[in-house]
Hints:
Chains A, B: Keywords: DNA-binding, Transcription, Transcription regulation. Chains A, B: It comes from Halodurantibacterium flavum. Chains A, B: Residues 7-109 form the HTH hxlR-type domain. The structure is a homodimer. Chain A has helices at residues 10-20, 23-35, 40-47, 51-63, 85-118, and strands at residues 38-39, 67-72, 78-83. By secondary structure, chain A is mainly α. The first copy, chain A, has a single domain, classed as Arc Repressor Mutant, subunit A, CATH 1.10.10.10. Chain A has a three-stranded antiparallel beta sheet with strand order 1-3-2. In chain A, helix 2 crosses helix 5 (85-118). At the A-B interface, helix 1, helix 2, helix 3 and helix 5 of A face helix 1, helix 2, helix 3 and helix 5 of B.
Amino acid sequence: MPDNIQCPDCKRINEVLSRVGDRWSFLVVFSLARYGTLRFNELKRSLGISQRMLSLTLKQLERDGLVHRTYHPSIPPKVEYTLTETGRSFHEPVNALGLWALENLDKIETARRAYDETV
Amino acid sequence: MPDNIQCPDCKRINEVLSRVGDRWSFLVVFSLARYGTLRFNELKRSLGISQRMLSLTLKQLERDGLVHRTYHPSIPPKVEYTLTETGRSFHEPVNALGLWALENLDKIETARRAYDETV
DNA sequence: CGGTATCCTCACGGATACTG
DNA sequence: CAGTATCCGTGAGGATACCG
């Protein structure tokens, strides 16, 4: 790497991650991909997320074109969320990350304990 | 989804992501995977990260067993960082995410503008 | 060069209450 | 049910200064 330039892609990757790279966005996409369609409170229970953060996260994801929102004007109201095509394509790397996480949690905890003992 | 239980994997995924799922960790792993070995200040310039955050991020990644640190006691000192095997395996999903980010930045910005106009 | 220490700010995010 | 509004605490993270 030439030492006076930045990692050429990191800046752009950073931009995208700062939009859809937070933990709640990951988990919402992960959940919607798994279950297809979920209502607001189903997502809320599913993720253990606060009402406020879910509302904010869903609005961002809708704005960025990853999530589609369908409002059924019944009483009580019913709102369903699904992934858009872009959202589904985002699911692939998100899922890969989730699987890696599940597979490596133990390894990380072991490494962490080992590290802490040497200190 | 049964409506009274949580997304079964989300809790564990959340745990791992809360450790290695921050943006700086992603970018450090992404950079180290691409360039192999980098010194502290090379990483710093490469990522546009503050000295403090890079120091903290590297220490976490070393602790979690994703990054290996080699100290050369010369004058001036020289410290090189590489990925461990776990770190390299982490690179796969991180890279997938990075590539997705690069491919979809435009699409996201377009969706965002469209959304903002309807409001 | 490769850090640590300190200070300071602001955004993340929970708790609670209220509404159509 | 599906939000919005408000308040508030904590922690992420930059800026700066200093050190071996």
